[in-house]
Amino acid sequence: MADRLALFTGGQFADSHAKTAHGILRYGEREVVCVVDETSAGSTASDVVPYARRAVPIVAGVEQAAALGANVLVIGVAPFGGALTDEWRAAVLEAIRAQMSVEAGLHTVLAEDDELAAAAAASGVELRDLRAAPPGLSVPPAERPDVTVVHTVGSDCAIGKMSVTLELDAAARARGLESAFVATGQTGIAIAGWGIAVDHVISDFVAGAASRLVHDGASRAPLLFVEGQGALGHPAYSGVTLGLLHGAKPDVLVLCHRAGSTDIDDYPGVPIRPLPELISIYEAATSWVDHPAKVKAIAVNTRGLDDDAARAELERVRAETGLLAADPVRFGGDELLDALGLA
Amino acid sequence: MADRLALFTGGQFADSHAKTAHGILRYGEREVVCVVDETSAGSTASDVVPYARRAVPIVAGVEQAAALGANVLVIGVAPFGGALTDEWRAAVLEAIRAQMSVEAGLHTVLAEDDELAAAAAASGVELRDLRAAPPGLSVPPAERPDVTVVHTVGSDCAIGKMSVTLELDAAARARGLESAFVATGQTGIAIAGWGIAVDHVISDFVAGAASRLVHDGASRAPLLFVEGQGALGHPAYSGVTLGLLHGAKPDVLVLCHRAGSTDIDDYPGVPIRPLPELISIYEAATSWVDHPAKVKAIAVNTRGLDDDAARAELERVRAETGLLAADPVRFGGDELLDALGLA
């Protein structure tokens, strides 16, 4: 039976932390029946979040989703800290009892939760933990496959690194290049159907997981677009970012930034460094392990600006950094791809 | 029944990766009956590794350790990758059958291994996983307790950061300062009896684990010496290093280096950056999360050099960096402590 998804966002559909729901709507290939979100219920998804593109209904509860024929409830929020809250647990249990499988990328492992596992067994449905680490992870080998690796890095988390990566891959494939998107987080995995959530593996193995993804990707295509995670200046997630950077050993970096952001979203008061400094920081970090890479372009998330304001912001960033700045989500990935100098 | 330890090193007692055995011998307060190491059997520990200080016998196998009255087998090696090998598994099973508990800081979780768990249950002995993450870890809060945090960082792993941290703490307490050693790895935990192995937690929670240690440490003393892990230039472990650095939010850094090392030990061909550049790298990394700290002194591991050569090497490092350079393991921690400017 094909998946018919209901995307649960716990009242946060309009917020950037609902990026899993947004990403599946925009880039996923599976059928989405509805969004479940009590705050935005009654609207359609693309009206509330234009990025999402699909005009699926937003309903208030799991019961309505089941009535619309959904057979999989997807936790569509990547919450700060990644835990399953009591409120969400109630929704998950309701879905299981309504014969829906549950797919989630939380740090809370659904299948290891006694209450959820018992309920799923009783209903005969699946619990899919997208963040579960594959067996056999370890430290990375010294050598990287002979492929070209493009890696998105950022000024903060939840600013659109995955979207930029997907747009670059789509633009490359549209030109006939053999390329692959390499998912490193739960949303990317939900979209691509493979990958490793590098933020959920044992910290000693972050680089090893990234390296394995590049090795696996090399069997798919000679040009890999590896999704970034977190930010080197993020007080909670910087370790994931650096381990991924060192394990992926990119040839080219794309720096992602959200227009107008001045502080780390999860840590108000911790300033985001100016873009030229961020470029230096990321380039320097690649050189620490003797695999130097350059930032070749800036991807700017201009969500919330009108087209004129967006173009002005891109021009400002170009002047500030001396690099091409583009918003591939708004204007397509071609211009950004050109700037990478891959062909 | 008090622990009577046998330290198992799988033929590697003389190697720096047997740092868990070496650290327990030098700094631990528990009784050590013997070392189990077929390569060095017949010698005494302090003859093979003077750092270890204790003249305990080295025996060839678990059987002899049991005959000497050992009741706990400690895996005394921190192997690259942290897995339990088949050879070690045989020794662990032999120990369990000889009524010995087993203590280990591997990534392989002994208590989750069906064969070992069944054997331990049958013999009525404990399996102690020092690296097991405590429950309830998450991302760090924004605020750090109002204590002074000294943190050791390094040019590579397994070069003596823990020893430097312990020597500084001992020197501080000898002066009547209220201080505490904060263990962040398995050897430190085996010595101190508390701590978190930050390299074994989910990568998203490395900084959160470090932050929790500082909060826990603050209830013990107003001056904390937080053990470092890995190195920012280590291709496998850099993510752990950065997460720990950002979670601990140190006030003062001590850069640790092994005299004469030019490449990352686990990755020959990946050069260690010059010390002045490492100082800049670590200081810059602290500033990324808006909690800048300075490297105040260099701890140089001069093991293998005679006293004159060691003093010459310290003088060379002083000239190269403009900072005090000392080997606290060889000459005591006082000089290094003075350079931190804490009093």
UniProtKB/TrEMBL annotation, chains A, B:
Q: Please report the stretch or stretches of sequence annotated as the D-glutamate N-acetyltransferase-like C-terminal domain.
A: 144-337
Q: Where is the D-glutamate N-acetyltransferase-like N-terminal domain?
A: 39-132
Q: One Pfam family name from the record? A: DUF1611_N
Can you tell which superkingdom this protein's organism belongs to? Bacteria
Name by which UniProt lists this protein: Putative NAD-dependent epimerase/dehydratase family protein
Organism source for this protein?
Solirubrobacter pauli
The cross-references to InterPro entries, in alphabetical order and at most eight, read: DgcN-like, DgcN-like_C, DgcN-like_N, P-loop_NTPase
Note the SUPFAM superfamilies from the entry. Answer: P-loop containing nucleoside triphosphate hydrolases
